[in-house]
Fold these 2 entries.
Entry 1:
Amino acid sequence: KDFRNNVKPNWCPGCGDFSVQAAIQRAAANAGLEPENLAIVSGIGCSGRISGYINCYGFHGIHGRALPIAQGLKLANRDLTVIASGGDGDGFAIGMGHTIHAIRRNVNITYIVMDNQIYGLTKGQTSPRSAFGFKTKSTPEGSVESPLSPLEIAMAAGATFVAQSFSSNLKQLTELIEQGIKHEGFAFINVFSPCVTFNKINTYDWFKENIVDLAEFEDYDPSNRVMAMSKIMETNGLLTGLIYQDTSRKSYEDLVPGFKKEPLVNQDIRLTEEDFEELMVEFR
Ligand code: SF4
């Protein structure tokens, strides 16, 4: 299926987000989805534009709120495949409360973060992922805060699927997104997606020199939670690949009876007059 539309992205030439767009389109096709069965919800930021660049349902939400919208969409119609996406500022600053709770809730959606360690849309300020000492217009003397580790946070929040990739590795990124889509639960995928205009430190070359591919470790077992956490810490969060997957836990909608039965959109949830009267009796 063709998930391309005729909207021309207005990202800067070379922006890492182009590859994320291509990877989502390829992964959706590889997973056998139809455009009418896929919805992409995004937050605010350069990355937020992605929901308008893919041929499927798209919802460009508000800052840090892609996840509540995406979860609501999935719970209303669990037959839809839902992808939430945004940047590191969107998901790990204003949206961090939602990120942690969505991870532990385990609704069956895929969350893709385009992590460029800076705020690009607002022209280059320090983000929660910027390194200590990182100089921007908002931290001219260098950031004095430690960057947060999204992988450690996802693991600590009880994630059932944690992966990380790099915009330059389209093959790996596509495979991980497809695996995330097929995972029965919340799939968290962090993507190093360089901002070529404002981040002159964490460039494509910088990532190529510093990231560690999990494929290098023959005995790595992504079902081993302790091994996953150790490897994240050993590599300072710079590893790529499928880091952790727990297939034993049921998704939120498989556990809650109202969602389990069938999609809410197919259920008659209107109150009859009798139901209403009954309800009122409880409040008298
Ligand atoms: Fe991409 Fe940075 Fe340009 Fe935004 S400002 S489109 S993140 S390169």
Entry 2:
Amino acid sequence: MTARIISGAAIAGRIREELKTEIAELKERHGIVPGLATIIVGEDPASQSYVNSKVKACQALGIFSLNHPLPGSTLESDLLALVDTLNCDHRISGILVQVPLPEHIDESKVLVAISPEKDVDGFHPVSVGRMVIGQPTFLSCTPAGIQQLLLRSGIKTSGSEVVIVGRSNIVGKPVANILMQKAQGANATVTICHSATRDIAAHTRRADILIAAIGQPRFITADMVKPGATVIDVGTNEIGKTAEGKRILCGDVDFDNVKAVAGAITPVPGGVGPMTIVMLMANTVKAAKLAHGIS
Ligand code: NDP
């Protein structure tokens, strides 16, 4: 048996087409153009490349984008003032502050300064709180992308055993919350494992859906996977560079061996990665609609 490959690239492509239509309709019927403001502080190449991809994705879909590259020496007070200006800018539906921020800036202060109505990254405590209690909100992009991958691949979550390895605030915890919710019928039974979990394999072997968000190359091996399970690999680990200097990536799952056991699996690259950016675009469109009272 070899697992069905869940192509995040293909699913993200379909969502992009849906968004293009939605954006064109918003413009035609209501004269609305969604707008995304990105802020990057400092010159970290990985962060620059993430922000560039987000700006490019906006351009491809017809979303107005405004990038603010700021020097690494920017004062926290100046960054907070910029966020405040963008909170009041009617062209801007969503604000994204690329993290990590330099050490002299308190990340939590900045994330809280973003208006929850423009919190398209879904990191504001108000957005997180709404998610936990099952209210409509902006879901953070990677977890929302994982939910879409499952939904659009016909993988049933209701009543399923979901095991997540990793408990970060940006992946593990929110994806657990989303998949356990009654509100949209996700209804999974969720277990979260982390570095203090005693016997991780004992948990992962029970999983109908196994989600790996650890940051350790090929951590999940074939003997840790129940035959026929769905395996979602969030890991994006750089394991080297090509002769041309391109990053060589591998996931948290030992893909070549696990695909012989699993029923369905996401590849790295081309799995969860492409979903994250498209969900940011979807949140920006949603923010624009909410700001204009369009449901
Ligand atoms: P974090 O480092 O914030 O969290 C990693 C989690 O994994 C922690 O909860 C940690 O446990 C747990 N963990 C680490 N090592 C082990 C171990 N040996 N055994 C059990 N648990 C372990 O990472 P992120 O959640 O931010 O990211 C995880 C991976 O996903 C990374 O490779 C990252 O690059 C990738 N990623 C990909 C995205 C995409 O769009 N494709 C988006 C975001 C992340 P503890 O809490 O106990 O320390």
